[in-house]
Amino acid sequence: MATRAFLLTSLLLSCLLQICSGAYFSSLQRTLIVTASPKAGEVLKSGEDKITVTWGLNQSYPAGTDSAYKTVKVKLCYAPISQVDRAWRKTVDHLTKDKTCQHKIVSQPYKASNNSVEWTIEKDVPTATYFIRAYAYDAEDQEVAYGQTTDAHKTTNLFGIEAITGRHASLDIAAVCFSAFSVVSLCGFFWVEKRKSRVANYVSVTMMTRSYNEVMWGCGEDVSVVYLFWDCRRE
């Protein structure tokens, strides 16, 4: 009984520690300056276009502000307009539960300046409106500071990304050619069938006319059509 109570207590404490661990976005200082190449309102294509991101420490902060910074992770984040009715993109202050920034651009050791990366947008990035955010992490891999390309309300300097459709121009051309070939083949089939029907009708009429003429010749041209077969049978 005591062992069972101990296990339950340990499990409860573990859950509480997991819930309490992790930073809160509202507690972070915005000490990093982040810029990106896309212009406000620009629409890029996933799998094709590239984004250049630069970041560094805001020099207006006193020396030593970044003493605990060990790593920087730059991420692509959803703008509020692309989070509406999408719980899987929901913003949560507790960063371990936050779904705002799901696409990692780069992770590298921290430097106060001269940081830049060119990133090709991955093919699995969905169509949405985005901004870019960089987090600074300490030695315990906890977020301690951040910077982003938009304002605090995430309404400025936003850009769009259009997801890959999986269709190419060559595929569309092939589909059009196949459709045209199908239509031509169908028309050709009906034309051949109609021609066969006409030929068959012509042959049938010709044979009937020939038979009639032969009968008329055998019975005499002056014989009435009404008594044609009767007179022939009598003879």
UniProtKB/TrEMBL annotation:
The chain crosses the membrane at residues 173-192. Residues 1-22 form the signal peptide. Keywords: Membrane, Signal, Transmembrane, Transmembrane helix. Pfam families: NAR2. It comes from the Eukaryota. One of its GO terms (biological process) is response to nitrate. This is High-affinity nitrate transporter 3.2. It comes from Vitis vinifera (Grape). The lineage of its organism: Eukaryota, Viridiplantae, Streptophyta, Embryophyta, Tracheophyta. The gene is NRT3.2.
